[in-house]
Amino acid sequence: MKDLGILKYFLGIEVLRSQHGIFIRKRKYILDLLAEIVMVECKPAETPMFPNQKIYMQDDAKLMDKRKYQRIVEKLIYLAHTRPDIANAVGVVSQFMHQPQVHHMDAVMKIIRYLKKLASHRVLFTKNGY
């Protein structure tokens, strides 16, 4: 084994230490996702999903590229582990991975636009006095 020093970045998670505890965030992961799907310059969204939005399978709706949709949603699922604010919206869009339609992708893009606004959001694990 080799001691690599204090953990700073691992599996897309940035680890920041302070006197209050440890912060984790996925800012770089989000920025890489935005660059991959060419949305770095997109307009940020206020919420990950419209309130009371119902997403369902529509008859005769145009289908989306299944692989692209699945790849993006899989990345969002990974992000949801440290971003509880998007967990519900990601759960909704992940239900359509077998046959995504264009309006499903629109919902995914809304989540991504929301992530752009709060890319630096972080989760704090506080010290408990031991």
Short structural description:
The chain has 130 residues and is of the alpha+beta class. The protein has helices at 27-36, 66-80, 87-93, 102-117; strands at 9-10, 13-18, 21-25, 123-126. Helix 2 runs antiparallel to helix 3 (87-93).
Write up what this structure looks like.
With 130 residues, the protein is an alpha+beta fold. The model has no long low-confidence stretch (mean pLDDT 90). Strands 1-2-3-4 form a four-stranded antiparallel sheet. The protein has one domain. Strand 2 and strand 3 form a beta hairpin.
Quickly count the helices: 4
Helix percent band = 25-40%
**Mean pLDDT, all residues:** 90
Largest sheet: 4 strands, antiparallel
Give, in spatial order, the strands making up the sheet with the most strands. 1-2-3-4
Give the N-to-C terminal Cα separation.
Answer: 27 Å
Give the low-confidence spans.
Answer: none
Radius of gyration: 17 Å
Number of strands: 4
Shape: elongated
Quaternary organisation of the protein chains = single chain
> Which band does the percent of strand residues land in?
5-15%
Q: What structural class do the secondary elements suggest?
A: alpha+beta
Count of domains: 1
Give the SSE order as H and E letters. Answer: EEEHHHHE
Topology diagram in text:
Elements (H helix, E strand, L loop, with lengths): L8 E2 L2 E6 L2 E5 L1 H10 L29 H15 L6 H7 L8 H16 L5 E4 L4
Antiparallel strand pairs: 1-2, 2-3, 3-4
